[in-house]
Write a structure and sequence with these properties.
- This protein has about 190 residues and is an alpha+beta fold.
- It has one domain: Cyclic phosphodiesterase (Cyclic Phosphodiesterase, Chain: A, Alpha-Beta Complex).
- The chain is about 30% helix and about 35% strand.
- The strands form two sheets. A five-stranded antiparallel beta sheet has the order 2-6-5-4-7.
- The longest helix has 16 residues.
- The radius of gyration is 19 Å and the shape is globular.
Length: about 190
């Protein structure tokens, strides 16, 4: 059974900037640079038939490319931090793409995502680090920015259960492009309805 999720890839230049953040955090397990991504929707372990249905449904998404901005770093877990991440600024294109995938997966019978969507790029797992260690690390690197990049596709990733995530395999890639315009006659007919 494949473990699937959808996401956005991180360009090499941006990944390199993220990789410069590595180090200096006691007992952190650092994510490999080639595994950086922005998760859109975790799907989970599913059978091959369901995976084919998901891949087919995702192929019908028509969205425009959008700019992704990474700015700042933070942690998840509060007093028991479990990961540090680069923040991704929410934008309409990103949030609408994620929401559409959520609707599609619910229509296919998958349960709703249990948490509010927070776009981010995980840099390290910190279950062995103390809250103080994480706060000090964040304070030193708090001004992190990586500029922006254009998201011109999203992908369906598969992974094997592993400690720290990865390696991830791209199963399908879906380009983001403007929806094709309607021919004039079809547009006129639609208007008259």
């Amino acid at each position: 059974m494949p473990r699937l999720f959808t996401g956005l890839e991180i360009p090499a230049e941006t990944a390199q900037r993220l990789a410069f953040l590595r180090g200096g955090l006691h007992r952190a397990v650092w994510i490999d640079q080639e595994s950086y991504h922005i998760t859109l929707r975790f799907i989970g372990d599913i059978d091959e038939r369901s995976a084919d249905e998901v891949a087919d449904a995702l192929s019908r998404i028509r969205r425009r490319p959008f700019d992704v901005v990474l700015s700042g770093i933070d942690s998840f877990g509060g007093p028991r931090p479990h990961s540090v991440f680069a923040r991704v600024e929410p934008c309409a294109g990103l949030m609408e793409l994620q929401a559409e995938q959520e609707r599609i997966l619910q229509r296919l019978g998958f349960p709703p995502e249990g948490r509010k969507y927070t776009p981010h790029v995980t840099i390290a797992r910190t279950k062995g680090s103390t809250q103080r260690d994480v706060i000090e690390w964040l304070t030193i690197r708090g001004g992190f920015t990586a500029g922006s990049f254009k998201a011109d596709r999203f992908v369906l990733f598969s992974s094997k259960a592993s400690r720290g995530g990865g390696p991830y395999i791209i199963e399908e890639a879906y380009p983001l492009a403007a929806a094709p315009s309607m021919p004039k006659l079809a547009a006129i007919a639609a208007y008259r309805r």
